[in-house]
């Protein structure tokens, strides 16, 4: 048998060693990690913030873990044009915490149902319904999405009843230089600037529970104030209409972790009108 050796064995050994190291590194490195691209507001507790402290941040993290993905956020203030500039512009693939029924997007099955609420001080005045006669004598805070005084369901309901003289509006966007602008309406109740406020439940419930003393939170009645006046909304995550596979994946993950999600919502004092134990197919 004739054995053939290169005249200079060292290049051969170096090439063999380099190949072995490359193969070892290739097997040690994880496969390309999946990315879950999410658009959210960086300054909007209890829903989300850039520090990941909101309940939507925590629920998104559960979904990402279930899908074997890492979360990549695009931060954008949640005001008019939010969807147009974010998910519809291709900056992300998923938005959490949207009401079911937005035509431009496809929602998952809802993971909770909440309502607008009446926020009042423990020993202060409150109302039984939007038809309570005492409303005419009370200073009432309402949320405004813009300069339109009838831009949220409770504001519209009061306007239909002619109750505008004692209404004080608080912009949802507010002063973005401050933390969590929507919270100003709850702080106004705590400070006595208004007698009570009509506000979206998840936000109001969170800040009311953390006020000193704790503020009272009751669902707005009636829950359906005419054909265009719902006070109750099912909340879901949403994708672009063509992203049906992602919608199904996210929906299935939400269902698998329903117990964890219910616990998170309870931690954040989210008022709920659904039964936390109920489950639905994705």
Automatic annotation (TrEMBL):
<protein>
    <submittedName>
        <fullName>Amino acid ABC transporter substrate-binding protein</fullName>
    </submittedName>
</protein>
<keyword id="KW-0732">Signal</keyword>
<dbReference type="InterPro" id="IPR022448">
    <property type="entry name" value="Quinoprotein_dehydrogenase"/>
</dbReference>
<feature type="signal peptide">
    <location>
        <begin position="1"/>
        <end position="33"/>
    </location>
</feature>
<feature type="domain" description="Solute-binding protein family 3/N-terminal">
    <location>
        <begin position="35"/>
        <end position="272"/>
    </location>
</feature>
<dbReference type="InterPro" id="IPR001638">
    <property type="entry name" value="Solute-binding_3/MltF_N"/>
</dbReference>
């Amino acid at each position: 048998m004739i054995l053939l050796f290169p005249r200079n064995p060292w290049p051969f050994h170096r090439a063999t060693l380099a190949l072995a190291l490359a193969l070892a590194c290739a097997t040690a490195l994880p496969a390309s990690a999946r990315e879950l691209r999410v658009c959210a507001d960086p300054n909007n507790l209890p829903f989300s913030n850039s520090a990941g402290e909101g309940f939507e941040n925590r629920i998104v993290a559960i979904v990402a873990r279930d899908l074997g993905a890492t979360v990549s956020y695009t931060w954008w203030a949640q005001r008019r044009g939010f969807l147009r500039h974010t998910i519809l512009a291709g900056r992300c693939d998923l938005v959490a915490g949207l009401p079911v029924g937005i035509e431009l997007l496809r929602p998952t099955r809802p993971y909770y149902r909440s309502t607008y609420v009446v926020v009042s001080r423990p020993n202060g005045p409150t109302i039984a319904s939007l038809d309570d006669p005492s409303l005419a004598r009370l200073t009432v805070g309402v949320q405004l999405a813009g300069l339109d005084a009838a831009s949220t369901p409770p504001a519209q309901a009061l306007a239909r009843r002619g109750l505008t003289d004692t209404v004080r509006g608080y912009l949802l966007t507010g002063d973005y230089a401050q933390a969590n602008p929507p919270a100003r309406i709850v702080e106004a109740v705590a400070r006595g600037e208004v007698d009570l406020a009509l506000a979206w439940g998840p936000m109001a419930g969170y800040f009311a529970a953390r006020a000193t003393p704790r503020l009272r939170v009751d669902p707005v009645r009636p829950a359906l104030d005419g054909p265009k006046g719902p006070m109750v909304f099912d909340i879901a995550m949403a994708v672009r209409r063509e992203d049906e596979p992602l919608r199904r994946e996210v929906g299935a993950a939400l269902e698998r972790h329903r117990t964890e999600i219910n616990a998170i919502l309870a931690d954040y004092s989210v008022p709920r009108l659904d039964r936390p134990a109920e489950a639905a197919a994705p």
